[in-house]
Every structure is written in C-alpha cells, then in structure tokens.
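Project outcomes to date are best conveyed with an example. Our students and postdoctoral researchers have been running inverse folding experiments weekly, and each run begins with a structure described purely in tokens. The record below, which covers 166 residues, was selected by the lab manager from last quarter's runs and is presented without edits.
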C-alpha cells in the first residue's frame, strides 16, 4: 500500500477518472437503459402474471363454490328421487298386496259358493237317491207283506192301533 501511494501520478489518475466516467456514461446510454427497460418489463410481466393468477384463483374459487352448489343440488335431487322411488315402490307393493287380498277373497268366496252349490247338489242327489231307495224298499216290503192275507190283516190292525195312539 505504501508503494501505491508513493507511485501516485496525478495525470494517470485524471485519465483513469475520465475513462471511468466515460465508461459509466457509455454504459448508461447503451447498456444501463436496455437492462433497466428489460428489468422493468420483466417486473411488469411478473405483476401482470400475479394479477392474472389472482384473477384465476378467484375464478377457481367461484367455480369451486358453483360446483359445490351444483353437487349439493344434485345430491338433494338424488335424495328426492330416491325418496320418491321408495314411495312408489311401497305404494306398488301395498297396491299389489291389496289386489292380491281382493283376488284371494274373491277366489275364496267363489270357492265357498262352488262348494255350497256342490254340497246342495250332492244333498239333492242324496235326497233323491234316498227317496228312490226308500220307495223301492217300501214297495218290496209292501209286496212281500201284502202277498199274505194274514199279514195284511195284522198290518192294517197295527196301523189302526198306531193311529189311535197319536
């Protein structure tokens, strides 16, 4: 450092200072301004990008809230449809049960009527057969008993005795 101070030359210092100032002026005119302009443009681009990102973020939040609303509406619509479908299913089941009960009741009534009519027909047939059989038996008995004169007399006396008792 001592050597630097002892070799100091004012002329050299002056020309170094002039060259330095000239270099700064040249840099300012040709390099500094384009560098600053580029930096300013970049800063402006970053600001615009941040602003666009903020707008996009707000738009995304709006879309997200709209999507959530749509999902909530869709869920409520789905729940309403499911509830309505369950009600329709239950109504269809109850209607089918009611129809089946009515149909079953009709079938039971028809079966009862058919049984009653078959029973009446069988009873009538039985009565006819019994009366026919009774008449045939009575006819055979009377022929048998009336073929003998002594038996006829006893039968007439018995009938007369029965009439008096009544």
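After processing, the design step wrote out the following sequence:
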């Amino acid at each position: 450092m001592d050597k630097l101070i002892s070799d100091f030359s004012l002329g050299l210092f002056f020309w170094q200072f002039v060259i330095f100032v000239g270099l700064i002026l040249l840099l300012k005119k040709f390099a500094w301004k384009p560098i600053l302009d580029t930096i300013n443009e970049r800063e402006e681009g970053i600001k615009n990008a941040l602003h666009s990102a903020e707008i996009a973020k707000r738009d995304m939040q709006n879309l997200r809230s709209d999507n959530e609303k749509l999902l909530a509406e869709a869920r409520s619509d789905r729940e309403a449809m499911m509830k309505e479908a369950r009600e329709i299913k239950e109504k269809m089941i109850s209607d089918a049960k009611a129809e089946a009960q009515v149909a079953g009741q009709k079938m039971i009534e028809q079966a009862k009527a058919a049984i009653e009519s078959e029973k009446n027909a069988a009873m009538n047939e039985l009565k006819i057969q019994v009366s026919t059989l009774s008449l045939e038996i009575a006819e055979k008995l009377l022929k048998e008993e009336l073929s003998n004169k002594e038996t006829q007399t006893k039968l007439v006396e018995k009938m007369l005795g029965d009439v008096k008792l009544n």
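DSSP finds three helices and no strands in the chain. Residues 10-146 form the longest helix (137 residues). The training component of this project remains on track.
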